[in-house]
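$ ./design --mode recover --in tokens.txt
reading tokens...
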């Protein structure tokens, strides 16, 4: 099974938030992803929203 790499700079932030919530990091990440996907309908919608947000903030793709 494919296991995507989480950016190294995000790991300490995820660790602190999950620890504060008293849940394992994997459970916290799964919950965040489930909510994001539910809010946007599909993985493609999430990526399209991210790209639009980046462009609106003056960034590129």
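writing sequence...
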């Amino acid at each position: 099974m494919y296991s995507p790499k989480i950016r190294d700079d995000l790991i300490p932030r995820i660790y602190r938030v999950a620890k504060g919530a008293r849940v394992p990091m994997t459970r916290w990440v799964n919950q965040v992803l489930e909510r994001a996907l539910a809010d946007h309908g599909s993985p493609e919608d999430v990526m399209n929203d991210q790209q639009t947000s980046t462009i609106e903030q003056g960034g590129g793709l």
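exit 0
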